[in-house]
Amino acid sequence: MGLSQSSFLLDSGTNCGYHVHGVQHDSPALKAGLEPFFDFILSIGNTRLNKESDLLKDLLKANVEKAVKLEVYNSKTQRVRELEVTPSNMWGGQGLLGASVRFCSFEGANENVWHVLDVEENSPAALAGLIAFDDYIVGADQVLQESEDFYSLIEASEGKPLKLLVYNKETGQCREVVVTPNGAWGGEGSLGCGIGYGYLHRIPTHPVPPKSEEEHMPLSPEKDEHTVLTTEDPGELGAPITTKESLCLPEVPQSEPATADHTEEDLNSAASDN
Question: Is residue 104 annotated as involved in ligand binding?
Fold first, then answer.
């Protein structure tokens, strides 16, 4: 069962939820089937989470060691699904869910990604296991809201291990990759790989048609330049990609990233306060 369209109408067009970033191994979140980067928690029990507050944390605390229903929107399939999770402080890791989340809009959720292009042999990118053209960098230990945030992070991490969340389009899965930027590795840039950003380098969506009347697609507000809840028409293309000379291969035109005001909510740290 999914949230009905009328549920989203009551949100006054605000398509927001708790964006799932990291999911710890053997955590309640992993066992429930939450998917990093693509999933947004919309409700817990029968309570819609349509604004940032302590409500999610409080509801998880109220259901410790008890199964509770989650409504989750997935930006890859563009569908809402129902999961069952059992918040726990006995599973062996941090937090009641074992997941890091932040409250934000899921409009344009798949736009802010960095596509791995050519990977040079023996480069830091190659040693980290990044796969040319199949891999997309979708996150890091800090929030990446704009195109330049990623490049700034790489420059600030010179010579230090950096954990990245990487999606592979062939496996359809996210994985953690540790890369050590090194401008002296013997080739071009500090990663030794090309990075694409923009319309042509977004993760392909795979819309899933509803299987029953109980499953619905979120009702989005009037489409603007930041809305990406349906597959876009290639005729609407802007400049396709952007790269950073200090990190990548040949310079290409730059496109403006979509931005939004976000705040960070980390369930791991929230649970540690209990």
Answer: yes
